[in-house]
Design a protein that fits this description.
The protein has 82 residues and is an all-alpha fold. It is 59% helix and 0% strand. It is built from five helices and no strands. Helix 1 crosses helix 2 and helix 1 (3-18) packs parallel to helix 4 (48-60). The radius of gyration is 12 Å and the shape is globular. The N and C termini lie far apart (28 Å).
Length: 82
């Protein structure tokens, strides 16, 4: 699974757990509602820093009881790892 697929898997699982759409998640995490749809459609990409920032945001804000997508490494905050 490449980084784009990981980001979409995590964002879609988050959206489902919160009962919101992908565009709303995109607005919350990436400050632009169309970004995740464009990534999923192969029409856009994100740089490494944006990917890492988004994945850490998801990890820190993951809904209680929701299952993190299988096959996607979950980032750990440096403070939590210490």
């Amino acid at each position: 699974m490449n980084f784009r697929e990981q980001l979409i898997a995590v964002s879609d699982q988050f959206a489902q757990a919160r009962g919101i759409g992908r565009q709303r998640v995109s607005t919350i995490v990436l400050n632009r509602g169309s970004t995740l749809d464009r990534i999923a459609e192969g029409k856009s990409d994100v740089n490494t820093g944006t990917f890492e920032k988004a994945m850490l945001w998801f990890s820190l804000n993951w809904p209680e009881g929701a299952v993190w997508p299988q096959g996607v490494p979950r980032p750990v905050c440096a403070e939590e790892a210490a």
